[in-house]
């Protein structure tokens, strides 16, 4: 349990972005996303600049497009919603290829698609360059409450255990004639999910009692985050890490001034 856990989105590497302290990358991500969201959707050029910033980070971190693009499909449900907006919104309408589309709906759809895509791309950049074991320590350095950090740490430690439990339960169902893809088995699958929840809850209680018996006081010690955790960010590293965020803020401010 003391070993670090690598999530599927992490790409092992030794780039400058990989070596940057995780707390600096988290702050940079938050500022970047806020700047993107705050940009007026009627102005198009800032989004090209945001995309260029992300692509530049991908080049620094040596993250290929063929790795990023399939993982961005997580935003597909939001894209479906965006497609419907030009048909459902009211106000001024225009004719495009025989369709009556709402101008407000088109702007809303554009805003959802571009801002969601940039947000997902930026988040994937953080995930690809930050090991899971570094996240709790980074949040602790940023002053996140100890209870939240403890919950995140335990989730990271035991997610593999729960995944193994799900695999064993599925194998047990199949060996008894279950067909997981059949609609007639929906009831059995729902019961399995309930059983998994109860087992997880009971395991959590046992783990918590074991921690209390060993002197747990509400905060996970830094040693529990992994021996390979990065050192805290210094002034120079904070300055370099904030460059993309500062550029995004400057672009957003310019978009409002030039609007």
From TrEMBL:
Keywords: Cell membrane, Membrane, Transmembrane, Transmembrane helix. GO terms for cellular component: ATP-binding cassette (ABC) transporter complex. It is found in: Cell membrane. GO terms for biological process: cobalt ion transport. The chain crosses the membrane at residues 21-38, 44-61, 68-87, 107-127, 139-159, 238-258. InterPro entries: ABC/ECF_trnsptr_transmembrane (IPR003339), ECF_CbiQ (IPR012809), ECF_transporter_component (IPR051611). Pfam families: CbiQ. It is a multi-pass membrane protein. NCBIfam families: ECF_T_CbiQ. This is Cobalt ABC transporter permease.
